[in-house]
Amino acid sequence: MPVSDRKKVLLRLDPAVHDALARWAGQELRSTNAQIEFLLRRALDEAGRMPKDAGGMPRRGRPRKKSPETDENGA
Fold first, then answer.
1. Is the pLDDT of residue 6 over 90?
2. How many CA atoms lie within 13 A of 19 on its CB side?
3. 53 alpha-carbon distance from chain centroid
4. How far apart are CA 72 and CA 75, in angstroms?
5. What is the domain partition of the chain in residue ranges?
6. Residue 19's CB: how many other CB atoms inside 10 A?
7. pLDDT tens, 17-70?
8. Chain centre distance of CA 73
9. How far is the C-alpha of 7 from the C-alpha of 28, rounded, in Å?
10. Which of 15, 28, 43, 44 has the fewest CB neighbours in a 10 Å radius?
11. What is the CA radius of gyration of the chain?
């Protein structure tokens, strides 16, 4: 799903809750927004309410480096 197709929502959080989420996200190497989406998806899945047509978590960040075995130049 292209980024432009994603829904935007305004979310009001207690500052202490936001800080805890931001710290947790940093430990998981995610943005705070990605951490919130991850937790919402997990909650939906555990409750049996995940829509069948929901896409997967979008890949974010840098592409993975090629392993030496797949790099033609050996670098």
1. no
2. 3
3. 18
4. 8
5. 12-46
6. 12
7. 999 999 999 999 999 999 999 999 999 999 999 999 887 877 766 767 887 665
8. 33
9. 23
10. 15
11. 17
